Amino acid sequence: MVRVGALHDGDRLPSVRQLADDLRIAPGTVAKAYTELADCGIIDTGAGRAARVKRVKPIPEPLVRAAKTYADEARRLGASLDDAFNALCAQW
């Protein structure tokens, strides 16, 4: 959502507890996701303050459309995400 521009630099994310309640999942799952996003440089987190989106270069719309087309075709063929990713990497 960040890379395609649905969330923007500085946007505040829900608290771990709030998002877990909204999605009806364990808070630990949300905390792990937030940690992974922070490790990837997508969000900024800190003890006692809200997680916020960091400035991330958006993916160009033509690339988003191409990726959607590829993903749709891979799903149609019954490919797993790993297989689709590996096939794409092999072309790089």
TrEMBL record:
It holds the Pfam family GntR. PROSITE patterns: HTH_GNTR (PS50949). GO terms for molecular function: DNA binding; DNA-binding transcription factor activity. Keywords: DNA-binding, Transcription, Transcription regulation. InterPro entries: Tscrpt_reg_HTH_GntR, WH-like_DNA-bd_sf, WH_DNA-bd_sf. Residues 1-56 form the HTH gntR-type domain. Transmembrane segments: none annotated. This is GntR family transcriptional regulator. It comes from Bifidobacterium longum.
